[in-house]
Automatic annotation (TrEMBL):
It comes from the Bacteria. GO terms for molecular function: transmembrane transporter activity. Signal peptide: none annotated. The keyword Nucleotidyltransferase does not apply. The chain crosses the membrane at residues 27-45, 57-76, 82-99, 111-132, 180-206, 238-255, 292-310. It is found in: Cell membrane. It comes from Gemmobacter lanyuensis. InterPro entries: ABC_transp_permease (IPR001851). This is Sugar ABC transporter permease. PANTHER family: ABC TRANSPORTER PERMEASE PROTEIN YPHD-RELATED, ABC TRANSPORTER PERMEASE PROTEIN YPHD-RELATED-RELATED. Its main location: membrane. GO terms for cellular component: plasma membrane.
Amino acid sequence: MSHAVAHPPVTGASPNLGLLLLKARTFIALILVFAFFAVAAPNFLSAANMVIMSKHVALNAFLAIGMTFVIISGGIDLSVGSIVGLCGMVAGWLVLYGIDFGLGWSIQFNTFEICVLVCLVGIAVGVVNAILITRLNVAPFIATLGTLYICRGAAMLASDGRTFPNLGGNPEYGSDTFRLIGAGSFLGLPISIWMLIAVAALAAYISRRTPLGRYIYAVGGNERGAALSGVKVNRIKLFVYMFSGFCAALVGLIVSSQLVASHPATGETFELNAIAAAVLGGTSMSGGRGRIGGTIVGAFVIGVLSDGLVMMGVSAFWQTVIKGLVIVAAVVVDQAQQKLQARVALQAQAALGK
C-alpha cells in the first residue's frame, strides 16, 4: 500500500541536525577556542608556542587516555595527579641515588631501567586502587581520593618536601640520557609526542579492536549484565586502573625530565584536567560510552584553553574557575545528547511502525 513507503516526518530533520552538532561539539569547541586565541593572544601561532603547547597537551592527553578507560568502566580515578608527583620523585631518587643498601653497596640504573621501575610504581598504585574497589568494595571516588593523599604524602616524605635538583644523570651508569625523555626530539617532533602517539594508538586499538575493549564498555554500560554474561568484571577494573597508573607514571617521567628536577607537589589538579578532557571528548560520566579519539581532541581543547589564557595574562584563579565551568558544561551537553538520541530513536521506531 502506498502509505507503507511514506517518508519519515520532516520534524526528524531538526533533531538529527542537533544530534550531529552535539556529536561534533569537541571539534567545534577546538576550532572556536583556537581561532579566538589566534586573534586575542599575541604570538599564539608562533612555532615556539606550538611546540610548548604540544608538550603541555601531551601531558594532559596521557592522563586523559587512562581516565577515559576508567570512566568508561564506570569508575573514576582521582589519584592520577599524585601518582605523577610520586613517580617523578621516584625517578629523581633513582637518577641521583639509585637504591642504596648501606655498607657501601648500592645499585645504579640506566635510563631505560629507571623508566621501567617508575612505570611499575604507577601500575602498583593502580593495583591498590583496583583492590580497594573490587575486593574491599570501596567506592571508586573514596578509594582513589585516599590513594591521592597517600601518594602525595609519600612523595613529600621522599625528600622532606624538597626538590630533587640537577637530574642530569651519570654517564658512567647510563642515566645521562634521562633528560632526553622530555627535551629530546625525533624527526622534528618531541619524544613525548611520539610516546603519546604510541600510547593513544595502543589504547584506541584495545578499545575498538579487542575483546578487552568490548568488555570495558560492557562493564560500564551494565556491570551486572556483563558479569552474568561471563565477563570477569574485577579483572577488567584491575586493568583500567593499572593502565591509568601507567599513564600517570609516564607523565611523572616526562615532567621530571623536562624540568631536570623532581618536586613532590608536581601533578596537583592534573586529575581535573584529565577528567575535563575525557568528558569534553564525549566520555559519559555514567560509564559505557567514550572514544579515545574524542579524548585526544578534548585534551587539545583544554591545552589550548590553558595556554591561551596564560598568554592573555588571565589569573590562575580564573583559569581554575573556567576549567570547572568547562567540566560542568561538558556534562550538561552530554546529557542533552543522550536525551536527543533517545528522542531520535523513538521517532525512528514510530516511523517504522507506520
